Amino acid sequence: MKRMNRARIVVLTVAICAGGVAAYLASGSDNSAPPPAAPVAQLPTVDVLVAKNDIGLGQTVKPEDVQWQTWPAATASATFIRRNERPEGVTQVTGSIARAPFIQGEPIRDQKLVKAEGSGFMAAILPTGMRAISTEISPETGAGGFILPNDRVDVLLTRRLKNPDPSNGAPDIVTSEIILANIRVLAIDQAPKEKDGQNTVVGKTVTLELNPTQTATLSAARQSGTLSLALRSIVDVKMSEITLDDSAQRRDGVSIIRYGIPSSTAKAR
């Protein structure tokens, strides 16, 4: 009888202890609150004027073409138009002509805009000190129509030099040389940009962006022979102009220029 009472007491004690532990754990889980979230660092921002829609080359900027957009201050270039510095930015750029195209969301920069002030489109987009000069081309001399406005080209002059003494039977000499390198194409005929995404523009004239010295060179070359355009890769448009070796041998024909180095000649009759 005493053993049974002791057993009951032990079982009851164990049950009471287990219940107490469970109650403690339950009360602890109910009262415990999740740790507070770490505060999120707020990056400094600035309002920047951006293109609300695509703005094409030569397009006049209207108020509805631009808008203010929040931009991380650390990545905002000094060339961007900031609201805290130029609160009248929308008014200031309205009426300007896009010297280069903008895509939607691109920050507006003064370097890509010009105030026409009554000038024509071509005069407006020409950089200071540069000239626009046109010359005749054909599919054969214009890279088959694959040259587009804003491409870069080399201008080649090809001349046929008659044999001063035909009696000796020597053939005429044909020479070809690069007279202008890395020249920007402003327009093909009257088209300052490609239309509807076309990848060829066949025209009869090309308008080039030249400085005054280059303008004189081109004008003289047009009277000396046939001009043709060589399209440059988009990769090397920023390369410095090719320096030609005046000592290139041209006595027997055409100087072939590879990578800026006159390398060989060929006879022509």
TrEMBL record:
<keyword id="KW-0732">Signal</keyword>
<protein>
    <submittedName>
        <fullName>Pilus assembly protein</fullName>
    </submittedName>
</protein>
<dbReference type="InterPro" id="IPR013974">
    <property type="entry name" value="SAF"/>
</dbReference>
<dbReference type="Pfam" id="PF08666">
    <property type="entry name" value="SAF"/>
</dbReference>
<dbReference type="Pfam" id="PF16976">
    <property type="entry name" value="RcpC"/>
</dbReference>
<dbReference type="InterPro" id="IPR031571">
    <property type="entry name" value="RcpC_dom"/>
</dbReference>
<dbReference type="InterPro" id="IPR017592">
    <property type="entry name" value="Pilus_assmbl_Flp-typ_CpaB"/>
</dbReference>
<feature type="signal peptide">
    <location>
        <begin position="1"/>
        <end position="23"/>
    </location>
</feature>
<feature type="domain" description="SAF">
    <location>
        <begin position="46"/>
        <end position="114"/>
    </location>
</feature>
